[in-house]
Amino acid sequence: MVIGHRFARLFVLGLLAAGILAGCMGDDDEDPTQTPVVVTPTPAGDDSGETEPTSTLPSTPTIETLPTATPAPTTAPTETPAPTTAPTAQATQQVTPTATLPTGGGNATPAPQPTAGNGSTGGVDVPDDLLSILPTVDDAPPGMVVVDEGPADIEIVAADFEDEAARQQQLVDWGFQGAALREFELPEEQIVDQASQPLGLINRVILLGSADAAQAEMNSFTDEIVLNAPDVTTEEIQIDPLGDAHRAIVATGGEGEEAINVVFLSMTAGPLSFQFIAGGGAQYDPLPDAITAAQATLARLGYQAGGPIIGDVLLETDFSNWIEDEFDSGVIFYGDDDLYHVVVEQGDGAFISAYSTDHEPFTDFAVSVDMLMVSGAPAAQGCVQARVDSISQQYDYTLCVDGNGNVEALYEEFGADGSYNPVPLVPGGLVTVAPPFDWTTLTIAARGQEFWFLINGELIDSVTHTGPPGGAVGVLVNNYGTNDDAPAEFVFTNLVVQEVQ
User: Fold this and answer.
1) For the CA atoms of 467, 172, 268, 448, what is the dihedral angle to 10 degrees?
2) What predicted TM-score, i.e. pTM, was given to this entire model?
């Protein structure tokens, strides 16, 4: 069956004129060009003083609403018990080379391809019939009817892009195995007040060779097609987690009676990449329709988030036995206040990190640390590190919060030639919490290729990434200010490593 474009035609006077919906349904007359996503940082908050750190790790991290950092009663931090394991520690200090961060997260190199019906990662059992997991008319807004549905081949999926041949090759490299679409719209005779009614819902699923490949497809579709549509106002928004990873874009276009709102909700579950595109009139909010469609799909798929189960303590330290040293760019010392101070005096991207040694590499684990910002430019970051290469310092995973409260998670690689190759897992600025002028607990949980990032015990995001299976743990301070700014100084305590199953 040939997939049609009735939904796109319905909006010919609205967003179709800008090419956004036609592109999503494979209209090869459109020629989008790629532009980068620009995220504006949130202004810095006020310094509210010190409060007591905690290091309690939830047994199964979940989040229902966006987290905010809540100050605890103002007290001096208490000394932690002696570590159950007493590793020594090493430190590194370096000026980070200038680099352009790629958009999107994850490693696009596909793993061996799962066979439909045989299951996959992320709690997903992939069915033979991909159409069977897409929303039905019962999941669509009342009154909508199915106007097109069926399987989609690689040509239809690649038709969204200006260079269709290049996109087809990219999909092949990602292990493309098939796709399906189902499209709903409100019959014309039921449209009595277009401005306040839902108008259509498009649902698409693509089966790729791995969870990483699915996330790569989701990010490239969002960045190159949705966020790049001409003559359309788009905004990326934060919603509660869906699937393994998700991105939500609100788009508005058209004028007067023809003005409409459209939500592009992309989601992955294992090797499956989904798009749920809901549209309505200028006074209608289509976001709940897209979320309902995504939730119905996850339920039909039998998806289980498979959050980490936190187990025994593998390491606990107050840093009193960690390295203390002076460097060209700053200093590390354990102070009379029983806190571990990392001070980066040099600006323009200089950083200092300290990591554990004298133990076997941690593989499946959660590492948390309590952190407080003492001074520095708003862009200065304090971070916790996981799976650090303690031998040659060539890779690590980091979760950071800066002086504006912007959250960022990265996989970092450092080449022997001094090159710096970061992969954003949680792009900086998409999630914002209270700035770390109060005690803030940073946590990374890792299990195989799955990662969970938490702030103050609240889940910020979860991703999959193919990288090193194990390594050390540590703390890191980045100084992205100038040399004339105050030194970037953060203090740390209560570093805890726990087993994850």
Assistant:
1) -20
2) 0.50
